[in-house]
Structures are given as C-alpha cells and as structure tokens.
Specification:
Layout lengths: L12 H4 L5 E6 L2 E9 L5 E7 L2 E7 L2 H15 L10 E2 H12 L6
Antiparallel strand pairs: 1-2, 1-5, 2-3, 3-4
Length: about 110
C-alpha cells in the first residue's frame, strides 16, 4: 500500500502500530530492506541494508525504531516512489518464491 506521496506505508497502520517495520523498497541502488525487531534486552533493533548499505541501531521502543528506519530511508532516497516491487518482506519473499517456482495464475 502506498501513501499519498507514493511511499510504502507497510500496510494497515493501526494493525502494525505495535510491530516493527518489515519492508523492501526497490530503488535505483537495488533492493533496500528495513526491519525492526525485538532484541534480547527488551528493546528494539532497527536494521537497514542493501547491496552496498548496512546499518543497525538499538532503540527503547518500536516507535523509535520504526521512525528511525522511515526517516533514514527518506533521507537516502528522497525521490523514491514505491512500485509493485516494494512491499513487506513477507510479500516480496512470496512473490520471488512464486516466480522462481514458475507458478502461474490459472
């Protein structure tokens, strides 16, 4: 799902409010992954990576981790407009697997 500015919003914001971001964006530099997940210390880790990019920081809350990832992505790719290749990590992985297995809709 995209927002009015063409960016991917990660799905239903209300249902994702307590979960970390899990997105892939197709950019001119290749696929960029954004992922926030709980860490062992009870906080959250925000990870951002691509072919020539990798970074991660620890945060106290999921909101802080998500905000960091969204802000960082927008700063690095201010002109990005989401296309069909952008989506949640899960959706993108499913599409890639289906393509590799040559599944077709009948």
């Amino acid at each position: 799902m995209t927002t009015s500015d063409g960016s991917f919003d990660g799905g239903d914001s209300a249902s994702r409010a307590d979960r970390g971001i899990s997105e892939v964006h197709h950019t001119e530099d290749g696929h960029i992954h954004l992922w926030a997940s709980p860490d062992k210390e009870g906080g959250w880790k925000g990870r951002l990576w691509g072919t020539e990019l990798a970074g991660a920081l620890h945060f106290k809350t999921v909101e802080e981790a998500n905000a960091f990832l969204q802000r960082s992505f927008r700063e690095m790719f201010p002109k990005h407009v989401c296309a069909a290749e952008c989506g949640t990590l899960e959706d993108v992985a499913q599409r890639r697997a289906a393509e590799e297995m040559n599944f077709h809709d009948y």
